[in-house]
Amino acid sequence: MAGYQSTHGSLVMRRALPAKLRRAWRQSVANLSEQDWRRLQLVVQVLAAALLLLILLLGGTARGRAHLHLRVRGGSGRARAGEPTAGQDTGGHPQELPFDNAYARAGGLAELDELLSDLAVNNVIVLTVANSGFRDFVDSFTCQLEQLELRNYLLIALDYALFQLAARRGINVFWFQDDAFWDLAEKESASNADESPKSAGLEANQRDVEHPETVTHETESRDLSIEAPFGSAEFVQISKRKSRVVVQVLILGYDVVFSDVDVAWLAYPLDHMDAYDADIVIQSDILRGSGEQLNFNINSGFYLARANSRSIAAFKAIIKHGNLAHLSEQKSFNHILCGAFKNQLGGPGKRVGNDQCLFTKKGDSASVQVLPDSEFPNGSNEEAWRILFEAHAADNREEPQFFIIHANNFNSTAIKRDVLSRAGLWYERGTDGACTLTG
């Protein structure tokens, strides 16, 4: 009988019972025949199996509930319920999300790094940043990327409503669940700042007069889910958040191709951009036909930034300048990378020839290549728009002569939509995630 007493069931019973009961148990066991003992052992095993099955059923139910309402941190999925509207109040920071999308996640830098590692191709990520006010541009932009079979893109949603909508539509999306990320990003940039507004090329008492898009600290809490018009305080704050995300992705070790959502991608541009031997490869924002150098005015809405210490130093300087001057980062890009913005002089960068700039500061030197307007036109290139309008009207499906075209330089989002539609570059995405070309 000693052999039977050493079985797993007997050991469990002896460990679980008090001493007096254990003695009674031993006496009872000693009086059992071998056949009775086998029967008792079978009963214990059946009870143990039933208990295990109950635990598994309860655990499965809990997992089922978790699948339907996944936790934000590390969660993923697509919803079946109605979609939120722009600016919808979600009660602060929601803890559960009903969707099923493996590339829609939220959290902090650790969760972002995990998602980037899943998406990046050859260590490159195509990054965009937007809010609910531009949700239809997000749909069109991501549809264009998918038409080019480009899936290594990521949307950083600035508000929960856009995050939820994008997740439900199958868009790769990330949302910083805690606003502390943005506060920390700003504090890190400001903590090492060694420029005053005056040394940054702006007299403090001139900022509000010379720059109508100036933003003060009182506007930091404005609603960033609205469709922010160019030059508004909300527009300035949104533009600043773009670079704060980019520098974090660079620090994580990924090359970034950043694109605003009003940039239409006609052909795959990454190989062409990568061929330039420069740390930062960026679009020009010169007015077409002005005769100015390509690097007289660069555009912060489309660029490639390589993950190295030189690019990181340049972007940190851009963020610092923007924090001090309270201007949109378009001006900070020009001031820091190319040394000037039109009549504002004195930045750490300088223009080199017609199409290059060089950022140099405290031993850090980042080379900047400005892309040709003939291949990467901005919104002021009327000839490029004419070519696209005519090709679309004639249903000309020949290989496009442009890699991208940026629908900036237009006064409203309605006009942007119109010109992109007339050029055959406007997509709509259904609630099922399917893309349809309109116009």
From TrEMBL:
<dbReference type="GO" id="GO:0016757">
    <property type="term" value="F:glycosyltransferase activity"/>
</dbReference>
<dbReference type="Pfam" id="PF03407">
    <property type="entry name" value="Nucleotid_trans"/>
</dbReference>
<dbReference type="InterPro" id="IPR005069">
    <property type="entry name" value="Nucl-diP-sugar_transferase"/>
</dbReference>
<dbReference type="InterPro" id="IPR044575">
    <property type="entry name" value="RAY1-like"/>
</dbReference>
<feature type="region of interest" description="Disordered">
    <location>
        <begin position="192"/>
        <end position="222"/>
    </location>
</feature>
<keyword id="KW-0808">Transferase</keyword>
<protein>
    <submittedName>
        <fullName>Beta-arabinofuranosyltransferase RAY1</fullName>
    </submittedName>
</protein>
<keyword id="KW-1133">Transmembrane helix</keyword>
<feature type="domain" description="Nucleotide-diphospho-sugar transferase">
    <location>
        <begin position="211"/>
        <end position="417"/>
    </location>
</feature>
<keyword id="KW-0472">Membrane</keyword>
<feature type="compositionally biased region" description="Basic and acidic residues">
    <location>
        <begin position="205"/>
        <end position="222"/>
    </location>
</feature>
<feature type="transmembrane region" description="Helical">
    <location>
        <begin position="42"/>
        <end position="62"/>
    </location>
</feature>
<feature type="region of interest" description="Disordered">
    <location>
        <begin position="75"/>
        <end position="94"/>
    </location>
</feature>
<keyword id="KW-0812">Transmembrane</keyword>
